[in-house]
Write a structure and sequence with these properties.
The protein is mainly α. The chain has 34 helices and no strands. The N and C termini lie far apart (97 Å).
């Protein structure tokens, strides 16, 4: 088979396999819903791009055209690269991590996907021989023709996959399959309800677009297919609502209303009845929205899993809505690096430094602003945000300059609006990225209005001219280079990270049992790929803490884990010296194994990098107390308490530290003798450690009287009485346990005998 056909078929096959990515769940991978999809997408793009590059040398019509959209997408990718290289942590910006699988490596793959799709699905053909072009240009004209049939087929493949994913979600909804996030929010094979929601948003609008294409009889079997597309539109919308993702629900409602408004206002050549119906639907949606808002606190609405999430939204409640703190934080941080930002994957530096203590009930390691536009403002500054927003503007420009009918234009405009609204509340992911760049490429292929009207239009210029390259040069130079580069890209961008990923899984599987071995973690670290290294080290610390606290673990094994963990903490600090995360995790590890001096050293640096985070303060205070620095710990916990007086753990920790420092009376005055603080097992343990046995015993007696059948409390009371020299009371307590729990006779008799025989 000629090389031209081989490369054409390979590149098109790769493009048509890409829509399957939402179905990929690599259960043998770390972060199986994220990493498997990303590697699948990247490998296909690399194969398709390499095959297309060879093809483009052979056949000029498959070379990129200089269009506004292609310029915009390319500039966006270049600006992102510049911002990442100038950012706080360029390597992380380029490679990302297993949890996100984004970074510039994903942006450049999206760019490559866009280029290959636009070149293969919309080849440039120029005729000057007097023949009539596909768009109907008169003889002798110069025409630029597209091949939207391939795009429609690609969209159909995507819609078929969407149907499978949505059916999986329906199975979850009926309770026949578990949801992965819990709480009844369907997520199917995406593993995240927000990711599922935006995927359904794209699918619903694309199905609606294809409905109008079928209604206009622009495809085969249009009469049957328009009903299929209509049903899919409703089905995808229903599943979107069942994800209970508020921002995306607002997006699809807003997008539908905008589509209807555009059709009603600009559809001058459409039947008046349809335009009036569109306006009526807008009015109906407005009325329903007002009725809902006025009755949002009615029990029937609050109990509904979907609408209840809207009725309970409170911008002033941090436990319910963290964005009110994250968004100002992102804006403030972006102003410190306004031109090109901090680089991708570096929002955590802003979050740690400017952490608002009122967010104690929220996630402690936000790595996104939960707003795509603020994310790009942080990632690549004002320049990057403009480059990103230009993609929306160019999409609208191309769509409205195209020969599409008003219905199709309205639907695509609504799609963009819905996606825009969704992006105000959530961050992007591969599911939305791929479809977004796909619709950008599709819009780029749309014929211009003047061409469809039979007017002469000059074609968009080709990036690399229209002269073919000699076949011997392609076969002996271009093709070998492309194949070598493809092998290198697949190996370094995918195979090695997959090796590290699966080796990490193997290490974690062995960690929980007697087979825990540092060799498994070292094996994963030996791959030495940035996307994996930090995750491996963090999981190593977690595993090492468990091994070192396991009394059954062998001494050499414990020593090996301690040595490796100690080494990798320092390596990670060298890699990310300004990131508070490694200092906190490393300090917590040392705390857990009693290495308090090392813990305090790391945690103090973490506190300097993130001075407002109370969870860090608690860990540091523990280390300070255990190194004989109780006054410093007390001052630290006072700061934590005063930063968020409603935070119970902060109150409790501060009160306990004051008691340890001999300031019990002052603590009781500050906290008004709160029994939730002072009448607890924890406080009893503090009294016992200070040999204030009477206070400790009183607390346990009160707890025992309120829970007379609780063996643990009764047993601790007996032990405490025995330690305080109250043998008779201890024996009496033990006899009470025996009366209520005769099945414990052997243990109780042994304890009583020990108490009686002690001096």
């Amino acid at each position: 088979m000629p090389i031209k056909k081989i490369t054409l078929y390979v590149s098109i096959a790769a493009l048509f396999l890409i829509p399957i990515f939402p179905l990929i769940v690599a259960n043998s991978f770390f972060f199986p819903f994220i990493t498997g999809k990303a590697f699948y997408f990247r490998i296909l793009v690399e194969i398709g791009f390499a095959a297309w590059a060879i093809l483009a040398f052979i056949e000029p019509k498959y070379r990129p055209r200089i269009t506004p959209m292609s310029i915009g997408v390319t500039l966006f990718a270049l600006v992102s690269l510049v911002a990442d290289l100038l950012g706080v942590n360029p390597i992380r910006s380029l490679w990302s991590n297993f949890e996100r699988m984004e970074g510039w490596i994903t942006i450049i793959h999206l760019w490559a996907f866009y280029i290959v799709a636009t070149c293969l699905f919309s080849p440039t053909e120029i005729t000057k021989n007097g023949s009539v072009g596909q768009s109907g240009v008169p003889n002798g004209g110069i025409t630029e023709t597209g091949n939207r049939r391939l795009w429609h087929r690609w969209l159909n493949v995507s819609l078929l996959v969407s149907f499978i994913v949505a059916t999986y979600a329906l199975v979850q909804l009926f309770g026949w399959a578990p949801t992965h996030q819990g709480a009844g929010r369907v997520d199917a094979s995406l593993g995240n309800s927000a990711y599922m929601a935006v995927y359904m948003l794209f699918s619903a609008f694309l199905a609606a677009y294809m409905f109008f294409i079928a209604r206009a009889k622009k495809i085969i079997n249009a009469g049957f297919l328009q009903w299929v597309y209509a049903i899919l539109t409703v089905f995808f919308t229903f599943i979107l609502f069942e994800t209970q993702t508020r921002g995306t629900i607002l997006g699809i409602v807003g997008g539908v209303m905008l589509s209807l408004a555009v059709y009603a206002i600009f559809g001058r050549n459409e039947p008046a009845k349809r335009r009036w119906i569109s306006g009526g639907f807008i009015g109906l949606l407005v009325i329903l929205g007002v009725v809902f808002w006025l009755n949002r606190h009615q029990p029937v609405i609050e109990r509904n899993p979907i609408f209840g999430r809207f009725s309970n939204v409170s911008w002033s409640d941090a436990s319910n809505q963290a964005r009110q703190y994250i968004w100002p934080m992102a804006i403030s941080g972006a102003m410190h690096r306004p031109l090109f930002g901090w680089g991708q994957e570096n929002f955590n530096y802003i979050f740690n430094a400017d952490y608002n203590p009122i967010m104690y009930s929220q996630e402690q390691w936000f790595d996104r602003a939960h707003n795509v536009f603020l994310d790009w403002l942080v990632n690549s500054g004002i320049v990057g945000l403009i480059a990103y927003l230009s993609l929306y503007v160019l999409f609208l420009y191309v769509v409205w300059k195209s020969s599409l009918g008003i219905a199709e234009k309205s639907v695509l405009t609504g799609l963009l609006a819905g996606y825009f609204v969704h992006n105000i509340f959530v961050f992007d992911n591969l599911a939305s990225y791929v479809l977004f760049f796909a619709v950008l490429g599709f819009a780029n292929s749309l014929p211009k209005r003047e061409i469809a009207q039979g007017q002469v239009s000059m074609p968009s210029p080709n990036w690399f001219g229209m002269n073919p390259v000699r076949m011997d040069a392609v076969e002996y130079i271009v093709a070998p280079i492309a194949i070598v580069l493809l092998i290198g890209a697949v190996y370094f961008y995918n195979v090695r990270p997959i090796q590290a990923n699966t080796r990490l899984i193997s290490a974690l599987q062995a960690c929980g049992g007697q087979s825990a071995d540092t060799a498994a973690f070292q094996n994963a670290l030996n791959v030495n790929t940035y996307v994996a290294n930090q995750e491996i080290r963090e999981q190593l610390l977690s595993c090492a803490g468990g091994v070192l606290s396991n009394q059954q673990a062998a001494g050499p094994t414990k020593q090996a884990f301690f040595t490796l963990a100690n080494k990798e903490i320092q390596v990670q600090i060298a890699a990310t010296p300004k990131d508070a995360r490694i200092y906190v995790l490393g300090g917590a590890f040392y705390d857990s194994i009693g290495q308090y001096v090392q813990a305090a050293s790391l945690l103090e640096e973490g506190h300097r990098l993130s001075p407002g985070k109370q969870t860090l303060d608690f860990e540091l205070a523990t280390a300070l107390i255990n190194t004989g620095k109780a006054p410093e710990a007390e001052a630290l916990l006072k700061q934590a308490y005063e930063s968020a007086p409603d935070y119970f753990q902060a109150k409790n920790s501060y009160a306990i530290t004051m008691v340890l420092d001999g300031k019990e009376a002052q603590a009781r005055q500050i906290f008004n003798n709160d029994p939730a603080i002072f009448d607890t097992q924890q406080m009893a343990g503090i009294y016992a450690s200070q040999k204030q046995y009477a206070k400790a015993i009183t607390i346990f007696q009160n707890l025992a009287s309120s829970s007379p059948t609780d063996v643990n409390i009764q047993g601790q009371l007996a032990q405490l009485q025995f330690t305080a020299g109250m043998k008779s009371a201890s024996i009496k307590t033990l006899q009470g346990i025996l009366k209520n729990h005769p099945e414990l006779k052997d243990q109780i008799d042994a304890a009583i005998k020990q108490a009686q025989s002690s001096k």
